[in-house]
Amino acid sequence: xxxxxxxxxxxxxxxxxxxxxxxxxxxxxxxxxxxxxxxxxxxxxxxxxxxxxxxxxxxxxxxxxxxxxxxxxxxxxxxxxxxxxxxxxxxxxxxxxxxxxxxxxxxxxxxxxxxxxxxxxxxxxxxxxxxxxxxxxxxxxxxxxxxxxxxxxxxxxxxxxxxxxxxxxxxxxxxxxxxxxxxxxxxxxxxxxxxxxxxxxxxxxxxxxxxxxxxxxxxxxxxxxxxxxxxxxxxxxxxxxxxxxxxxxxxxxxxxxxxxxxxxxxxxxxxxxxxxxxxxxxxxxxxxxxxxxxxxx
Length: 297
Fold this sequence. Notes:
Elements: H1 4-16, E1 28-33, E2 53-56, E3 58-59, E4 74-81, E5 85-93, H2 104-113, E6 130-136, E7 157-164, E8 167-174, E9 180-182, E10 189-194, E11 198-206, E12 223-231, E13 243-244, E14 248-252, H3 259-296
Parallel strand pairs: 1-4, 1-14
Antiparallel strand pairs: 2-4, 3-13, 4-5, 5-11, 6-7, 6-12, 7-8, 8-9, 10-11, 12-13, 12-14
């Protein structure tokens, strides 16, 4: 039996785990340029200094079967590049590493509390955890973005699709939810870590792909549209029953030109030189005035 006082203590402890303010949502994820080696794993110490960006996710309630109780409500995104490769670390909270037999009872309760939606019952078996990242197939200033739910036949989306069991990453094309076609070969490498209710997934790819006709090129100084999907397999979520985001953008920082450092230094030297010249002329004028005054006296 749990007393009212214990319930309040539990509520206060849960509240203490939450931030004082909701994370700030920004439209652009900045990928800083680094001069050294890029991190190789999601737990590399380099990530500690990388800026984090919060991307909120909501339930997919547009395409049947819809989902009104998503587990993942957002992802943290960090990105770095070295002028040749782009690497991203995506972090999100998930109570289980799906599939996990210990969560079978939970899924059974989900089936009872979440009746069939759109005449499609919840699965009786757990699936894997999922994260999908989508981009346009072409990145240009005037290119229209695909439909945010995986594109369509007229304008497909380029996607990186990861799942936890087996730990696998597929790269291909989507023309809507449930219509994934894998590419010939993946140029994206990945590494995933699950620790105490949190997934950390790192993905790395060269900026210039081998086939630019089907795969977007990532260019420095260009805003690249990006969107996310996430699913918790232990809660019966899948490609359709999932969390989704709107379109955001990732921007790769450009190298700082030498003129940025040279111009201020040159300006300071010029200003200092002009100041010395003005002071010297003022002193000469003052000495001349004093000499004339002495001659007159």
